[in-house]
């Protein structure tokens, strides 16, 4: 395991994104991975979200995407969400992991690299 440099462009990030249903979550996940904005996205169904929206407390069933990418791809990932996500304000929370195995980190970097990058 290594503790990656969190400021480096290739530093791993785990991004949390909620979607209104499985169909939207799958489309977002596929789009992110196909465009190499992420190496992987896990879909966790049956999440209940309680939140404040437009002055009222709301409660909705959602699907949580747990997306693995690198720091350099966050801006493009957020732009993709802005264009393709049905919410006015899509959740996009990027977390820096404390440690990542060497083999997984190499796979993650390769899977979320620009298509023309040499790796």
Descriptive keywords:
single chain, 119 residues, alpha+beta, Alpha-Beta Plaits, 4-stranded antiparallel β-sheet, 3 helices
At a glance:
The protein has 119 residues and is α+β, with helices and mostly antiparallel strands. Helix content is 29%, strand content 34%. The chain has three helices and four strands, in the order E-H-E-E-H-E-H.
SSE diagram, text form:
Layout: E1 12-19, H1 22-34, E2 40-53, E3 56-70, H2 74-84, E4 93-95, H3 102-111
Antiparallel strand pairs: 1-3, 1-4, 2-3
CATH class value of the domain at 15-67 and 76-94: Alpha Beta
Give the neighbour order of strands across the main sheet: 2-3-1-4
Overall shape: it is globular
Tell me the number of strands.
Answer: 4
Name of the CATH architecture of the domain at 15-67 and 76-94: 2-Layer Sandwich
Rounded to the nearest angstrom, the radius of gyration is 15 Å
Kindly report the average pLDDT value.
Answer: 92
CATH fold-level name of the domain at 15-67 and 76-94: Alpha-Beta Plaits
Order of helices and strands: EHEEHEH
Structural class per helix/strand content?
A: alpha+beta
> Can you summarize the main beta sheet?
4 strands, antiparallel
End-to-end Cα distance:
20 Å
Q: What is the helical fraction, as a range of percent?
A: 25-40%
Structure annotation, total helices: 3
Low-confidence stretches: none
Strand coverage percent: 25-35%
């Amino acid at each position: 395991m290594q503790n990656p440099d969190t400021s480096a462009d290739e530093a791993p990030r785990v991004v949390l994104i909620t979607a209104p249903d499985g169909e939207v979550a799958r489309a977002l996940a596929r789009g992110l991975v196909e465009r190499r904005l992420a190496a992987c996205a896990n879909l966790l169904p049956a999440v209940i979200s309680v939140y404040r929206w437009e002055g009222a407390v709301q409660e909705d069933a959602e699907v949580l995407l747990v997306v693995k990418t690198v720091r350099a791809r966050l801006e493009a990932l957020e732009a993709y969400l802005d264009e393709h996500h049905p919410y006015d304000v899509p959740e996009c929370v990027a977390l820096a992991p404390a440690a990542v195995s060497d083999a997984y980190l190499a796979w993650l970097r390769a899977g979320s690299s620009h298509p023309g990058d040499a790796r």
